[in-house]
Amino acid sequence: MFLEQGIKPQNKFWLYLIGSVLIIIASFIGQIPFSAAVLYSSFVNKKAFPTDNAEVMQIFDPNITLFLVMISFAFAFAGVYYVIKYLHNQTLLSVTTSRKKVDWSRILFSFVVWSIFSALSFWVVYLRSPENFVWNFKLVPFLILVLIGILLIPIQTSTEEYVFRGYLMQGFANLAMNKWFPLLMTSLIFGSMHILNPEVTKMGYIIMVYYIGTGLFLGIITLMDEGMELALGFHAANNLVGAILVTSDWTVFQTYSIFKDMSEPSAGLDVILPIFVVYPILLFIFSKKYNWTNWKEKLTGKIAILESPN
Description:
Layout: H1 13-30, H2 32-44, H3 53-56, H4 62-87, H5 104-128, E1 133-135, H6 139-176, H7 180-192, H8 198-203, H9 208-225, H10 229-245, E2 246-248, E3 259-261, H11 269-290, H12 295-300
Parallel strand pairs: 2-3
Antiparallel strand pairs: 1-3
């Protein structure tokens, strides 16, 4: 049982608060190379140190910016590992899945399904309004983007999954001793972490429905599947395919993607459709493939404390 693996007498909730702070500190340490690079650039070019996040993201070549930003997640992941191992005396596997080993076929299946769907969805949008997109492809920068993306974006997405669907999910389970509270809290916190994204400024707070809904979807598939594998594959596909396919001036990252979206963003079907149509379809696909049953108990039931053998 996935959540139950984190239920131990010594795993008091205050330890998760300490662990979260340590992970944040590790992430800040990982941001030092980017901050140092920005400071050096400001000094060399005799410009004031930028205080606006959008300005910071445009100082360097997009590939360099992506690389420097992704590095911080490698430090954060190291923080997650050491907090789990030394603060909670757990293995990384116990925060990943209830299975005896990580099921890579699940990660791959989820990755492929969402990659195909993302590509087809973009193609439909492109065919409906080709005037909103311009060809942005440049071979060498694109190949560098693909290399950086394949190496580092899965680290970024996996770090987020280990923090929210793994570490904090089990942490809130220790506090509430039920399943609905960890699911709800991690979804809300995951969504709130995106509130400073430029997409929120452009589209308004309605887009938070998408971010929180996505967190809820990832939490549901984690609890129903008794492990994070499907969430890991989905999240990696979502960010990697997005970075490679299309960029815009109003997203968090500007990349050397194949296309550039020139349209003015608005919150409409692109917010509602995934939450109320696409994600339920994915839940149906996953549930049929992996024979999910007993939904109410797995999503809202009480935590069954695992008894250690005498």
